[in-house]
Structures are given as C-alpha cells and as structure tokens.
Amino acid sequence: MLFDNSYEGLPQEFYERINPVPVQDPKLIIFNDKLGKILGIDKNKTPKQLAELFSGNVIPKGSSPIALVYAGHQFGHFVSELGDGRAVLLGQISTPEQKYYDVQLKGSGQTKFSRQGDGRSPLGPVIREYIVSEAMHALGIASTRSLAAVTTGEKVFRETATPGGILTRIAESHIRVGTFEYFAAKDKTDNLKTLAEYAIKRHFPSLKDSTNCYLSLLEQVCDRQIELIAKWMGIGFIHGVMNTDNTSIVGETIDYGPCAFMDNYDPSTVFSSIDAHGRYAFGNQPSIAQWNMACFANCLVPLIDQDLDKAGEQAQTVINQFPSKMNTALMAVMCKKIGLDSSKTNSQETLSKLLRIMLDNKSDYTLTFRYLSEIIKGKRESLFKQQFLEHNQISNWLKEWKELIKDQNLDKKEIASSMESLNPVFIPRNHLIERAIKAAVENNDFSEMKTLLTILSKPYEEQSKYDEYMKPPKPHEVVHQTFCGT
Ligand code: AMP
Ligand code: MG
C-alpha cells in the first residue's frame, strides 16, 4: 500500500496518534481481492500475513495510525466529544489511478475517545457491515467499502462473551458533519476553516475558485446527501442511526450499525433496537437528512460571511431548497422504478397509488418492483400479482399503468432494461444476514457469508441457482430487531 497521510498534516487537535492494540490470534476471514486490486495492494501475501496486517498486529510501512476526533447529534441530542473510540485510520493510500482512499481498522482497540467502551467489535457487526457495504456498492449506491475482515482470537463481552472481529474499511473520506460540529461547538473558527479548506481541497477541488466556497460546500454536501438518500429509498435501505456523526460529507453511506432492508413496504418500518421512537424510520430518512444538513449549515455560518446575519440567511436559503430538491430526486428514482417519467404529474400519482396498495397488501418492496419490470417483457403477471393479498385494486392499477407506458411511445425493451437497472432481484435481506452471522459466530463457518457476497455482487441479475435467496422471510424467519453490537 502506498500511503500518503494528508490528515496528519492537520493540527493536533484533530486526532490522537495511536496504534491499534495487538490481538491474540488473528485469522483472516476474507480479503476483498477485487477491491485490493483497485487499491494496488500486493496480492502475493499469505492469509497469515493478511491477518497480521488487517488485525493491526503489523503496521504497514508508511502508515501512521491516528484516531479522529468528532462530535455529533445522536438522536437529536448534541454530544460534544465522540471520535474514533474503536477505530484507527491507518492513513490515506493512493491507487495506481491516483485516487485517494482512507484505510481504517474498525474494532482495533481503545483510543482516547473510547469513553467507557472497550474499543472492540463483536464478530456479528463486522460480518453485517462487510456484507451490506459491499452489497450497497454493487447496487450502485455510494458507500464505504470492506477490504478485509479478521477474527481476533479474543472474546468481547456484551450481553454474553462473543468472538471479536476487525473490519478494514475503505472510504473516500471519514470527515463527518460531526467533525465540523466538534470545532463549531468550541468556537474554534480557525480549526473549522482549516477543516473546511482541507475538505474542499481533497474532496471538492472544483469549489476552490467559487465566489463563496463555503456556501458552495454546503450546497454540494446537501446535493450529495439528496442523491444518496433518494437511492436508499429506491431499494428499501434503512440506515438506522442517521446521527450527524454518521453522516459523511462526501455522501457515502457510512457506519453500518443496526441497518436493515425493508421486506414488505411500510414507511414506518424501524428495525434498530435503539430507535425507540422511530426517528430514523424508513419514510423519515429524507427529512432527517435535511435536519442533518441544517446542523452542517450552522457550523459553516461563521465561514460563509463575517456578517453572521447575512451568512445565516444565505445558509438558510440553501437549506430551504432541500425539500423540493429531495422530492425531485426521490420522484426521479421512484418513477423510474415503474418505468415512468417523473416530470409528469400523472406518473407521480400512479406511483403513489401503487405504494398505497402495496402498503395495504404488505407487498414485498423488492419483488413487486422487479416483477413489474418483467410484465413489459411479456412475462406472466401472476408473479407480480402474487405480491398482493387482494387482486381487484392492483388489476385496476395495472390497466392504468399500462396505458401510461403505452403513451410514452418508447421502446419496451429499453423501458424494461431501465426498470431492471433500478429494481434489484437480490438485496441483503435481514434473515439471510442473520443466518450468515449465526454460522460465523457459533461455528466459525463463513461459507454462508461468502455465498451471500457472491450473489449480492450481481444484485440486478437473475441467478436461477439462488432463487431461494430472492424470497422474503418465512414467518418464523422474520427479523424484528437489529442491534448495533457496539
Ligand atoms: P457508532 O455506533 O459507530 O456510530 O458509534 C458512536 C460512538 O461510540 C463513536 O464515537 C464510537 O467510536 C463509539 N463507540 C462505539 N462502540 C465503541 C466501543 N466498543 N468502544 C469504544 N467506543 C465505541
Ligand atoms: Mg458512528
């Protein structure tokens, strides 16, 4: 790995220098060869060498490990000191294509930000993050990625003793809204400016010459959130902990905790055991993203203009645009899922009728849209209709929808392939992930995890061998709650 540690160049208040705490007996679970190749990592390493490297027992040449400081709003409440309490950044690496990525070990031991925590991660959440982040990437959704996972040979203690694991995470950035909030809350405007300048130089270089680069930064970060959340909504992803410390400024999905995919459509769906009031329910995600961006805007006010009233107004204008931009992006994704053009009002009406019927019929979010795409290709409607308990309403809706499709005068094949490119066949369903985690934790068996990763690497393609993995859970398999496992 070729390290180029730009974050280290920032003032000392931005991080703590700290090495990962060695573990007893690291064993490689998986190494992501394809990603390794993109990153230019030497592939001639033995599993033992990879385990040493990705457990933090051996620190690669050129790395200079640090734990980053940040703050954040957690479930709406401000916490002034968070930071990497169970992770270290090994540094930034540059790829053969001259792209820069952060390499982070998660579960790597205590840092000064650990508070009461042990700095470790149970194996279960490592498996979940590995599977879901790689699935998100394959689904075409911006996400941090997983390069490797290891077991530590040590137990971690939560409700019971459970095997420990470490995930190697690759991200375009680990700068969070919470990183800005840390300095803003302390009125450290110099550090805030240094952070904003670093973020612009590294992640938004085109803003360098704009008339007010901090205002433009706010706009771009909002736009990336909008694009991201619209895509989450399109595939039924629920992040579960959309706190500002889990909001990346580059618009990547980050910090997979109690995240989950919705099976049957219901905007009020919540899985996370810590989300008692449903703040981060599926349907709330667009408005929560706006709330998070308002926090970001507050941080930037002192940089936008010395006249704070004027700066506040300018920032507010950007935030005021959020709902309509979000709605446009969401409608574009959702209408495309049913093969219609979102700029037409009847498309949006048709979409909302369908969603209403799906809600009443507890229709599977993934299969309903996928089978709809297949009707255009002349396949039998029965698979689609099977997603509904009662057929009258949906039959009427289908008639209406077919008229709209016909009116578009477009090539049917093109409509079908456009729909299929947004309507996956396979998603990482919760019961499948739970099964993979159970096998790993109870029997040290990673075969189910690997099968899932194979299937989910081509989520938009039919894979007849794996039909079983398309199906929603049987009643006894339904997962009602997911846990952070921190
Ligand atoms: P997260 O749930 O990943 O968003 O984490 C929230 C905060 O708690 C972050 O500052 C983490 O670093 C910290 N944290 C979570 N789990 C642990 C742990 N086991 N030990 C130390 N800090 C932790
Ligand atoms: Mg977090």
Notable traits:
two-stranded antiparallel ribbon, binds adenosine monophosphate, single chain, binds magnesium ion, globular, alpha+beta, 15 helices, 43% helix, 6-stranded antiparallel β-sheet, 486 residues
What can you see in these coordinates?
This protein is of the alpha+beta class and 486 residues long. The protein has 3 domains: 3-174, no CATH class; 210-335, no CATH class; 338-486, no CATH class. Helix content is 43%, strand content 13%. The chain has 15 helices and 12 strands. The strands form 4 sheets. Strands 2, 6, 7, 8, 9 and 10 form a 6-stranded antiparallel β-sheet that branches. It is globular, with a radius of gyration of 23 Å. The mean pLDDT is 96.
